[in-house]
Design goal:
Elements: H1 2-5, H2 10-13, E1 19-22, E2 29-32, H3 34-40, H4 44-47, H5 52-55, E3 57-58, H6 60-63, H7 65-72, E4 76-84, E5 91-99, E6 104-112, H8 122-151, H9 157-179, E7 192-194, H10 196-210, E8 216-219, E9 227-229, H11 231-249, E10 258-264, E11 268-270, E12 279-280, E13 283-289, H12 296-299, H13 317-327, E14 331-337, E15 340-347
Parallel strand pairs: 4-11, 8-10
Antiparallel strand pairs: 1-2, 1-6, 3-4, 4-5, 5-6, 7-9, 10-13, 11-12, 13-15, 14-15
């Protein structure tokens, strides 16, 4: 114990969240920081040579995170996992296991008495969805009729292409309105194999048609597999994120740039709002802008309904994005500083349940 304790720098010892060092073969605790000891109410002497799963209860897929990390020599993260300590009520936590020179590190971030994905005002968003769906359907029919009349007066190929875009977007919004009532309450009913690059290109075109001066950089990983999801709701999530980025760069004095990026991201797993099994989330979609950034006091609440950084904003766009992510068994994250804001949507691939 002393040998390992001597290798722990003071900064890690004083880390304010529970942190363990695990022996990979036996999965026994060889060191725990002060935050973990206080969280459990046990000293390091009482924790030594015990497995974490002997001290608190977690699902089987969580207890395998250490062996997965050791076997693959790579970090693994699982989010919104139920955990029970003794007689305490069940709560939720995010677990990250990562390889170190001395063993396997296990970090535990407590999320509270309910999953983080449930903290986005789900009932409120669903209720607003019913209202929005009702109000959308009547004007949609009129807009599509007007677009069809315009077609006879437009001769250019570009104009005809824009009218086609209007028509297809109206059809998509009508389909979306039909499902708004249950959005996020269950897995998407039209879940299928989705080409996320096609969705991103289409969303970019929709936003750019209204803002021709916007500068986009597209960095797509062509090796990524298809995502598992519903194309219409994912399209709406992408539109909301890109629209927010466009509004952010419009307030910047620097030359604007919005980056659309996809990449493979290993080691992240989570449960969706109705999934019984944790899922790998290897597909990451990034929307990055060089706007002024989001204030620190807003970042933690940015996915809550009616929280907005814009004077005229209603605060429903990002709540809807979070709801779409949860419905797909995925996650949405944000990191922001002046000059760079990055939203990441993490999605599963088909048949990615963890056995």
């Amino acid at each position: 114990m002393t040998e390992h304790a001597d290798m722990i720098p003071p900064l890690i010892e004083e880390w304010p969240f529970p942190l363990l060092l695990i022996e990979p073969q036996t999965e026994e605790i060889i060191w725990a920081n002060q935050a973990f000891q206080e969280w459990l109410g046990k000293s390091l002497r009482h924790l030594k040579d015990k497995r974490p799963w002997d001290i608190f209860s977690v699902d089987d897929d969580v207890s395998r995170i250490i062996s997965k990390c050791a076997n693959d020599a790579a970090p693994f993260t699982m989010r919104d996992c139920p955990i029970t300590r003794g007689e305490q009520e069940e709560e939720y936590a995010h677990f990250t296991a990562y390889p170190t020179a001395s063993g396997i590190g296990l970090s535990i971030w407590l999320a509270g008495p309910q999953p983080q994905s449930a903290k986005v005002g789900g009932q409120l968003v669903s209720g607003m969805g019913r209202l929005i769906a009702h109000e959308l359907k009547n004007p949609l029919a009129g807009i599509k009729g007007a677009a069809q009349l315009l077609r006879d007066d437009v001769a250019s190929e570009e104009g005809q292409s824009l009218i086609d875009l209007i028509g297809s977007e109206i059809d998509r919004i009508r389909r979306l309105a039909d499902r708004m009532e249950t959005l996020g309450d269950q897995d998407p009913e039209n879940s299928d194999r989705v080409n996320i690059h096609e969705i991103l290109r289409r969303a970019r075109r929709v936003i750019q048609s209204a803002n021709p001066s916007l500068v986009f950089t597209e960095r797509y990983d062509p090796s990524l597999p298809h995502a598992k999801g519903d194309a219409d709701t994912l399209m709406q999530a992408m539109l909301n994120l890109i629209k927010n980025a466009a509004e952010a760069v419009s307030t910047s004095e620097e030359p604007s740039e919005i980056i659309l990026e996809t990449r493979f991201r290993s080691g992240v797993t989570a449960r969706g709002s109705s999934a019984h099994e944790a899922q790998h989330l290897p597909i990451e979609i990034r929307i990055i802008d060089n706007g002024p950034g989001i204030a620190d006091h807003v970042t933690d609440q940015i996915f809550q309904p009616f929280v907005s950084t814009k004077p005229e904003g209603q605060g429903l766009g990002l709540a809807l994005v979070s709801k779409v992510a949860a419905a797909h068994g995925g996650l949405v994250e944000v990191k922001s500083r002046p000059g760079k804001t990055k939203f990441s949507l993490l999605l599963p691939t088909p048949n990615e349940d963890i056995s």
